[in-house]
Amino acid sequence: MKTGGVVLPFSFFSHCVPLKSCLDFVNMEGVKTKSSARKSEPQKTESKPGNVYDAFAKQMLGRIFVFVDFLIHYADPKFIKEINLKKITLAPTHYFGRGGKERIVDLVFRCPLKRGGGSLMAVIVFEHQGGSLKKIPQKLLKYISGIWETEMKEGKPLSAPYFIILRTGKKPHRGTLPTMADLLPKGSDGKPLGHVPEIRYDVVDLPAWDFGKLVGGTVLRLALGLLHKMTGGHPDEFPEALLPLLEITDEDKQIELTKELMDFVDKAFKAHNRRLDATKVKEAINTVFQEKGEIMIKSIFDEKVDEGKTELGREIILESIRERFGKVPKNIERAVNQMNDPIALKSLAVRSASCKTLAEFEAEL
Fold first, then answer.
1. How far apart are CA 178 and CA 181, in angstroms?
2. Which residues, given as ranges, of the chain have pLDDT below 70?
3. DSSP β-ladder status, 89-90 and 6-7
4. Helical H runs in the chain?
5. Which of these, 287, 271, 278, lies nearest to 235 by C-alpha position?
6. What is the CA radius of gyration of the chain?
């Protein structure tokens, strides 16, 4: 698929949702195993809504062509004039701290300047809480200090910082932007004491936008539109966000991207302890694709049903081995998880319940 002469990859949504989440669409959510419960325990933090939106936005905006599209339409024009858009690269985020304990958790891009050997370090900071921005200045000072320290150690010229806060709270920010001076002691005249280190930043406030005026390429508007509907409006009212899909003429790409977008919406609902059922899916897809809607739904979710059955088969086998022998050796777990043939998995499930030793079961693999 091409938009504006740029080839659009579709893999950036690929890790948004576990296979189990798609089973809800086809009423197959009645089977749960102990192994699935164990697997979910280390991932409890993923259920927080902010993490869902972070994962979606970072996966999408982490693509250089989408980030450039975002810069062109939403960043300060004076910075855009100075940087070489064709040479922007995704920068590392381990600028300070040992063992990754203190690292930049937002997206960082190195934007080479058109003139000279310097660069602009653009950082997109994601704020989904919708609360005060008062901690932002201190956070940004920490970021740029870490970046400069690393650049000095490596003998590189210092980058000019440019911070964009992508805010997706339910209400737009009102009033002036918080500064470091707001956090520091004040003198008798009410002004902050000392030489105040200030840092500037821009805020792109998603819910404050008129949804009909979103600009940018197809994929950028799809992603921003969904973020808008899921954070700034009622989560059931998302069909309108899919309208840019009509610009994609390749039907296979339409199906692939629609599938990934539905996965994101499904996971976002689950983060709010809600369920997106088949009726809502049909409503959204039919709004965009009209008479093709039923074909789209079948194409999107039939594949997920088969994947879900295969995943469940693997879980049953591993749980059987775990209950009988106390643990599952890593080599066996790896071999089982690599199996995709449902017939072979069914046969292996029977052997997992009847084999006398792990060696006997491993021979079946």
1. 8
2. 1-51, 94-104, 129-131, 208, 232-237, 272-278, 280, 291, 293-309
3. unpaired
4. 19-22, 34-40, 49-61, 64-74, 77-82, 136-153, 218-231, 251-271, 278-289, 293-325, 330-337, 342-354, 358-364
5. 271
6. 24
Q: How far is it, in rounded angstroms, from Cα 46 to Cα 55?
A: 9
Of residues 315, 219, 294, 157, the one with CA closest to residue 11: 219
Decide if 223 contacts 264 (C-beta within 8 A).
no
CB 82 within 8 A of CB 70: no
What is the distance between the alpha carbons of residues 137 and 184, in angstroms, rounded to a whole number? 12
Question: Helix 278-289 and helix 251-271: axis angle, to 10°?
Answer: 140
Q: Cα–Cα distances in Å, from 113 out to 42, 59, 66, 72, 150?
A: 43, 25, 19, 15, 19
Torsion of CA 19, 21, 25, 30, to 10 degrees: 100
CA 139 – CA 92 distance, rounded (Å): 17
**Backbone angles phi and psi of 107, in degrees to 5:** -80, 135
Q: What is the CA angle 220-221-224, rounded to 5?
A: 85
Amino acid at 334: R
Judge whether 297 and 49 are in contact, CB under 8 Å.
Answer: no
Residue with the two structure tokens 């091409």: 2
pLDDT digits (tens, 9 = 90+) for 32-61: 333 334 444 444 444 455 567 777 788 788
Question: CA distances (Å), 300 to each of 35, 257, 265, 297, in order?
Answer: 27, 10, 14, 5
Residue 81, pLDDT score:
93
End-to-end CA distance of the chain: 40
d(CA 189, CA 191): 6
Nearest to 62 by CA among 90, 92, 97: 90
